[in-house]
Each structure stands twice: as C-alpha cells, then as structure tokens.
Design goal:
Blueprint (H helix, E strand, L loop, with lengths): L2 E5 L10 H9 L3 E5 L16 H12 L6 E6 L2 H11 L4 E7 L10 H9 L13 E3 L2 E3 L2 H7 L6 H10 L3 E2 L19 E6 L7 H10 L4 E5 L5 H4 L1 H12 L1 H6 L20 E4 L1
Parallel strand pairs: 1-2, 1-3, 3-4, 4-8, 8-9, 9-10
Antiparallel strand pairs: 5-6, 6-7
C-alpha cells in the first residue's frame, strides 16, 4: 500500500484524476489528488504563484503521509513532480509522468519546444490557441476539446474543457533543478500518449532521450489518458507501484545533462492498447 500524490497540469485541477481514484483504492493504495495554488481552488493571487509555491504546497501534504509515497504527474505537472522529488527524495518511492514534462535540470518546456520547432513547427501544441487573461492564460473550450480531449467520450470532453481555469504565468514558465544523487536515483515511469496533440509524441520521446532511465508504457490515446483510456492508465500505474519493481530499481542518471539514447532502445519499453 502506498500514498499516491496526483499532480495535475496547467489549466486543470485535482478533478483530472477522478476516474482513477476508486481503482487506486481498490488496488490497496491511498490516492491524494491535489489542487495546486492559484488554479481557482484557493485564494492564492495569480501573481504569487511559482514553482517554489507548488513545491511547498505538495510538500506540506507529503509531510502528513506515512508513505511510501508515489508521485504521479500529468502534463505540466511533471515539472512540479520533479522539483518535489528532488526536495523530498528520501520520502519518494517513485515518480510517474503521464504525457508529462520530464526535463533536464534547469530546462523549461518552452526551451525544449524552441529547440524542436526548428525542424518540427507543429510542436507548439496548444500554444497558438491560448487566450491572454490577467496574470495568466486560458484555453478556449473548443481548442481544449480539439487538442487535449479529442479522443475522449464527447460529453466527458466537453465537461473537462469547461472545467479548465486560468493558468498563472508563474506556474507555467518554470524549470526544476535536480541532482543525480537525489531525483536521479528514483524509479521513474513515463506513460507516453501516442496520439497526443498537445505534448506531441516526438516531444515526449525527446524528453525520454534527454532524461533516460524511465520505464516506458505506450498508450494509444491523446493527451488525457484519464478520460480516453482510464483502465489502461490505471493498470500501468498499479504495475509500476508494485514493491518488487520499486525495490529492484538501482539505475542512477549519469548527470542532469545526460547524453542522448534511443527512446525505445531498452527493454523497459511496453506497449498498451
């Protein structure tokens, strides 16, 4: 049994994990879906939002939990998960990224996309559709349905799009700094979404190249497996949480600026459909 801390991505909230909570409990775990500061569920001013604020908020929850603790992050929540794992490495049993931003130390997602855009301009994802809002940005509902939730059941996609909120700028343009000795020693899982229109598969694969060592599960779905393939997502996570796998992990990242490797060149590449 583990405490599962579920971290949402930009414009979203703890509700993105609703489809997994019962299944995680049935598997014997204690899920904790968290709302990050400034996403509309607390009084934090948008101008006060930062990665440090996110880490402190998640850390306050971690300090109340018996553990072992598994972090699960969707999309932009991956940056927060990495920073939390670095800060609380002694408490963390593993980190799972769901189409998430698993980046080299000090690199933000915009920098990665700028690098790739020279050859692949389509990596901009949701960017061209964003609307400015005071202190942040918002995603129009039609764009959310087309980019984030295009393969989810129609009513679920519409409902999810309507629940998106303003994302504070201070919680989006962020970069985690981590060390091989702390974050780098933790077991990691990368759940790749093969039909993702937001964090494109080539971007997900590039992140796995730059930060090697994670197990990889491939789901044939878009950016939100929680809506499109919740059963397969749940199975992948529960398998990763199994104690023998976490206990046997002994890989250490060579450095935060690791050399490139083929994203599917290791035996940890698993496809799920």
């Amino acid at each position: 049994m583990a405490d599962i801390v579920l971290i949402h991505g930009a414009w979203a909230g703890s509700w993105v994990w609703d489809s997994l909570l019962e299944g995680l409990r049935s598997a014997g775990h204690r899920p904790h879906a968290i709302d990050l500061p400034g996403n509309g569920h607390d009084a934090t001013p948008l101008a006060k939002v930062s990665l440090q604020r996110y880490v402190e908020h998640v850390g306050a929850l971690i300090e109340t939990l018996p553990g072992p603790i598994q972090l699960v992050a969707h999309s932009g929540g991956g940056v927060t998960a990495t920073a939390v794992a670095e800060a609380y490495a002694e408490r963390i049993a593993g980190v799972a990224y769901v189409a998430g931003m698993m980046l080299p130390s000090g690199m933000n997602f915009g920098e990665l996309c700028a690098e790739l855009a020279r050859d692949f301009p389509e990596v901009s994802g949701i960017g061209p559709y964003l609307e400015a809002a005071p202190g942040g940005s918002r995603v129009p509902s039609d764009a959310a349905c087309a980019v984030f939730f295009h393969d989810a059941p129609a009513q679920a996609a519409i409902a999810a799009a309507r629940r998106l909120t303003v994302q504070p700028d201070g919680g989006r343009d962020i970069a985690a700094h981590w060390s091989a000795e702390r974050f780098g020693r933790l077991p990691r899982l990368y759940i790749e979404a093969a039909q993702d229109r937001s964090v494109l598969p080539l971007v997900q694969q590039r992140m796995q190249q730059l930060v090697p060592g994670a197990e990889r599960v491939l789901l044939d779905c878009g950016h939100a497996p929680q809506l499109a393939m919740p059963g397969a997502l749940l199975a992948a996570l529960v398998d990763f949480f199994a104690p023998p796998r976490a206990a046997s992990f002994n890989a250490v990242l060579p450095s935060p600026t690791a050399t490139l490797m083929s994203p599917c060149s290791n035996s940890n590449c698993i496809a799920a459909t």
